[in-house]
Amino acid sequence: MEHQHLNNQFTCPMHHEVVKDEPGKCPKCGMDLVPLSKSKGEHLDNQHKSHQMHTRIKAEEHSGHEHQHSHQSGHAHHAGMIDEYKRRFYVVLALTIPIMALSPMIQHWLGVHWMFTGSSYMLMVLSTVVYFYGGWPFLIGLKDEVKSKSLGMMTLVAVAITVAYAYSVAIVFGLTGMDFFWELATLILIMLLGHWIEMKSIMGASRELELLVQLMPSEAHLVQGDKITDIKTENLNVGDIILIKPGEKIAADGIISDGSSYLNESMLTGESQPVEKSKGEKVIAGSINGNGSIKVEVLHGSMDSYLSQVIKLVQDAQKSQSKTELLADQAARWLTIIALVFGALTFVVWLTIGKNLAFAMERMVTVIVICCPHALGLAVPLVVARSTAISAKSGLLIKNRTAFENSRKITTLVFDKTGTLTLGKFNVVRYESLLEKYTPDQVLSMASALEQNSEHPIATGIVGKSKELKLEMPTINNFQAITGKGIQATIEGKQIKVVSPGYLKENNLNIQITGSTEAETVVYVLVEEKVAGFIALADEIRKESPDAIKTLHTNGIKTLLLTGDNKEVAKKVSDTLGMDGFFAEVLPHQKLEKIKDLQENGEFVAMTGDGVNDAPALAQANIGIAVGSGSDIAAETAGIVLVNSNPQDVVNLILFGKATYRKMIQNLVWATGYNVIALPLAAGVLYQYGIMLSPAMGAVLMSVSTVVVAINARMLKV
Question: Which of 170, 523, 631, 686 has the largest count of CB atoms under 10 Å?
Answer without folding.
Answer: 523
